[in-house]
Amino acid sequence: MAEENKTYTIPIGPVHVGLKEPITAWLQVDGERIVDVRIRPGAIHRGIEYMARERNPIQVIYLAERICGICSFAHIVSFVRVVEDATGIPVPPRAKYIRTILLELERIHSHILWAGVACYTLGYDSAFNLGMLLREKVMDVLEAMTGNRVNYGVGTIGGVRRDITPKVAKAINEMLDYYNREFSYFYNVVTEDPIVKARMRNVGVLSKENAIRYCAVGPTARASGLRMDLRWSSPYEAYEDLEVEPVVPQDYLGKVHGDVFDRFFVRVMEVYQSLDIVKKCMDGLPDGPIMHESKPAKLLSLLKEAEGVGQSSIEAPRGDDTHAIKLTKGEENITWWKVRAPTYANAMSWPIMFKDQEIADAPLIINSIDPCISCMERMLVVDEKGSSTMTTKEELIKLCRDKTRRLMHR
Amino acid sequence: MFKMDIKKELGILPKSIWAFHCNSGSCNGCDIEIVALLTPRYDIERFGMKLVGSPRHADALLVTGPVTKYMTDRLRRIYAQIPGPKVVVVVGNCGASGDVFYKSYNLDGPVDNILPVDVYVHGCPPRPEAIIDGVTKAIVKLEEKRKELLESGGGGNV
Question: How far, in Å, are A17, A63, A156 from residue A292 at the CA level?
Fold first, then answer.
């Protein structure tokens, strides 16, 4: 007879049907039950922060966009905000509103995409197709507004590069009507289905305490009942004029489970919230210029003269996206740039969610935090001799503080 | 012993193309456009094309992204698992040339450094229509390879 309590290791990834991006997870299973999990990120690390040091801020805008194709505008806005913070370039109010509209449109497309993919992971293909059909409408609006479906490239330092013309405004208003009419159908088809409920309820539970302890952010934290949303707690752009309340399940359902269903619910409700914000922005869209400086060469010389450190946090579709930057006077290129994308914070809670779940739910749990692996893959420790070393928390904190001190004295 | 009738097997092939998608370090932009291909608006399944979950079922390999060092070996292994005749379609600029990632320290790409590429689909990201166009061009190439195989009696290494 085999040893008792023997566990087997099942690898998932890096290339796997249930995953859209390369990441490896080793599941320790006892029968069908997951006992432990190890995650190996770093498969698609591209060294973006390093590359940025050889480029000027205007070039880096387009690099920042390609940190992630789904939340690309969130990264652009976060990046241009740090440069504006470091240099003191003002942003016209109309540009702020247009940025907010684009951020919310992006949130709509990201959340619907996620909801569709979650249904696909369950094997509920009709709902996936329905969700993706609905998503095409917002993609049309984004295309009408910016000229591209993904990676719009419309953000620039001190404003935006595309205005909302009357034609685009008409398309946006049509889209709002369309979603207010049609989206509830998708939502009902999923949430009222007993099988979906059985697959999502009490699966991948993250309690409120663990969400705080493992620093979950964005919809993952809100689904665990944490009232946190940067649009509410530290408003930026046009959110200063709007009132945004964080969407938490206890306000709607009366109780927090912190499971996959709650994460689904929060994202669906945020689509409605985003529609509302877009409508408010369209109603209150101020007139005026959309750029502080329209000539790139002039803007570049302005940036060359700038000296300083900038920091900015915004609420991307997956959580808070923080950028920090340093510009040195007389140097065209960026001195350093640091990005902290939400997925890295959320990925820390995976092992908690996996505990005592079934293997069949593993892809769903991985997808439930809406992982954006390409966002998080910027940190990789490579030992040149190829050996691996363990770093304790204290050592890490010490290294962090040393680095901060080093950067402060540059 | 199992004996394969290569003429019969290759005769079945030209009906429809099945593709396997491998993300080798892309920013997700191309990947969501590939997912959009499956959706009702673009619906590649009406052409009989579909995405499959295993490279062993695939005729075409869709590669997105500049190839990172970690993914190089995986990409080679996936390519080796696809039964011939096979085609490789690179989706997106960064797989074709590196694009914005051109000076990165962690890339082995572009894809043609690693695999023989048949079709490049440009754009960052390319539109779903462009990807469909690229895959239909790949079908022509696949047909050529199939014919070559049939003539050589299955001995060629395609």
Answer: 46, 22, 10
